[in-house]
Amino acid sequence: MKLKNKITLSICIIVIISLIIMCASIYSKSASILNNESTKFTEVQILRAQEKIDLMVKKVQVETLAFSRDEHVHKFFNKTEDTDETNRYLIDTMEKMNLDNNYYKDLFIVDLDGIIVASTMPNAMYVDLSSRKYIQDGFNYKKTATSDILLALSDRTNIVNTVHPIYGKDGIILGLFGIAIKAENFVYFVNDYEIGESGYFVIIDSNGYILSHKDPSMIQKLASETLTGFKNTEYKKDDVYRYYDAGFLYSYKKMNSNNWILLTIMPKDELMAKSISLLGYVVFYGIIISGCAIFISIFMSNKISSPIIHINNYINSAKNSNDIFENAIDKTIVNVKGISNLDTYDNYNNFDSFINTVKGKVDKDLNFFEKDAEVLIKKSEFLKNSLEMKTYLTSKFLSTLSHDIRTSLTLIKGYSKGLLSGLVVEEDAKTRFLQEIYNSAETLEQISYDVLDSTYEAQYIQQLKLEKISANDFSKYLYDFAKDYIENSDRIFIGEYSCDDYFIDVDKVKIIRVWQNLVNNAVKYSDKYTTIKISIISENNKILFKIKDNGVGIKENDKEYIFDMFYKSNLSEPNSYGLGLYVSKLILESHESTLQFESTLNKGSTFWFYISKSMV
User: Fold this and answer.
1) If one looks up domain 354-458 in CATH, what number appears?
2) Are 471 and 500 in contact (CB under 8 A)?
């Protein structure tokens, strides 16, 4: 086999084996990342659903407390309002409460014997609830009590009841006020939180019975007998547990409400769908890359083998010349000794010339690889510098965030300790301490919203909810928002508005977030009583959104980094985490648009982007 063919075959084998290993590694790592992303997304959905359900339970408890202090309820116990009047009041009240959601089943009053003495349901009147645990807890512990899943004694429907003691003026318990919630309605509160295409939520009460399920016939059944993947063990409230069984992924989270368990059930095939799709892409592109690699191998083998072949030819030529020369010496050495010496001298000169030629050829071919090496070194240095910058920005972000949180917590603890110590007796001082506690808590809340919402949105930025909406109406809303915000911030508003009446396809919530970020930045980085100009105009079937301020501007060295996550030109700036422009850029790119800007230091900045007209 020729040298050139050997080199070509060797390079092809090395390249193909390397590609196979690389593709397998990429697929394995990417599949692991995708599966982790899916399970993390499931955990996020569980936490969001838990918060919503806990909030609903807390809302019902607060409503029950409010009813226990209601004037009509106390008139009923004082005998100044009869049962029929009280029942009519409860019916009218519940109808108003059900206008928005329709999950209230009954409002009722229980006397000291545990008997329902007032209710919105006629067949619930005088039903004895004294044996119910939540009724006993309400009387014994004198606090709000929420039941597990119950079968209503009045009409045999599945409900969850909440009761709170009713106190008289002398502090003696008169009875309990209760609110009954339809159990199947619990699942409706988390319908917005998707778990794949066919995954769903299940709520299990503290006794192990299904409280909520997408199939109403499953409610009131024992979870351990009907859900094969459910394990009725002890769970910590802060942890999410996962378990695979019969082709499903079961994820558990203990809720704050009554030690209920929130469970998600998702087919394992859906978790693997992205990995299988990824495998197809890896195989497809692997084949294409392999073909290109073979072509490149042939090209490279020509380049690599060329100097070697030339060297080999030079060596063979030199050997042949040397053989001819030796034969000539053997024939003439006796008669022409002087010429022999001269020829030997010439042979040495020819050999030096050969060495110099070979050296020049090798140096020329090596220069080809040296240039590539220089380019690679420059790219590596750029990547290294970029990674160092990302690491620095991330650590600075965490430092700023922890400082802001610690400051607010320190203030809350300090003022709370002052109130608890009893040393602060003046009402004005107490009010000031409480106001400071409230302000610090509000700061913590704002930090949570800014950071968690921004990072969450950045992570799932591609999940757009596009709507076909009127360009004129939407643009006018953004224009009016900017005008009000700027004028209320003691800046001078100058506006230019002109929008044609056609439709655009956008995710309204995300575009509004971009606009709010840009308007807020224009106000934040400009002084009071300076001018901010807003332009929203139609240009060639596109809408131009532009904001120009006369603020501090952006340094030249900062311009290439302002869209990076966590980057801030002023690292000492409070209440900023370098996320606004990063998230805005991602949102616009997902809308096939681009966030552009111009800025001059100490003279101001201009940011703008376009939204295209709907094609349909």
Assistant:
1) 1.10.287.130
2) yes
